[in-house]
Amino acid sequence: MGDVSESFEYGLNATAKEFDGINKYIRITDIDDTSHDFILDNVTSPDIDLDNAENYKLKDGDILFARTGASVGKTYIYRPSDGLVYYAGFLIKAQIKKNINPEFVFQNTLTKNYKKYIAITSQRSGQPGVNAQEYSEYRIMMPNREEQDKISIYLRKLDTLITLHQRKCNEQ
Question: H-helix or E-strand containing 119?
């Protein structure tokens, strides 16, 4: 994964406060376990001077990885429709290179191979964890950009369909 990413960066060390109406703060618990979407039910803001937090703003296609605890390996891909979002300290951001489809990379984090890598790599004597270096060492097969785009569109549509059907089932 290191070959497809510009960088891996650790998140903002700030507590959460009541949502200020503009600045959202995403933590591990704000990422849905099933859909991997940003849970917008109880949005918070970072309790810190945001003038010095520019590096912690998410940009289109950034991928977040949970780095420790029971949620280690959980991922989220930022989409502009989520608004202005800062990411918290127990998350690692991968900024995907411009010539790579970030959705394709994200979809690779939803596979059995990825889950197996996380299960093996996260084993520690204490709490499970995967650091930025270990995430960068995860191997993905990369087809050409045209194929990445086609695969990503197909899988995103499938994910959306599954989510819609799941919501219908939950309503009944």
Answer: helix 112-121
Number of other residues whose CB lies within 10 A of the CB of residue 140: 16
54-90 residue pLDDT tens: 999 999 999 999 999 999 999 999 999 999 999 999 9
Asked if 73 and 15 touch (Cβ cutoff 8 Å), the reply is no
Global pTM value: 0.92
Q: How far is CA 63 from the centre of its chain?
A: 4
Q: Report d(CA 128, CA 103) in Å as an integer.
A: 26
- Specify the DSSP element, H or E, that contains 148: helix 145-171
What length is written for the chain?
A: 172
Within 10 angstroms of residue 160's Cβ, the number of other Cβ atoms is 11
Residue 140, Ramachandran bin (φ over 0: left; ψ between -120 and 50: alpha; else beta): beta
Q: Which residue has the tokens 């960066």?
A: 9
CA separation for the pair 52, 144 (Å, rounded): 38
pLDDT tens digits along 113-165: 999 999 999 998 688 999 999 999 999 999 999 999 999 999 989 988 988 88
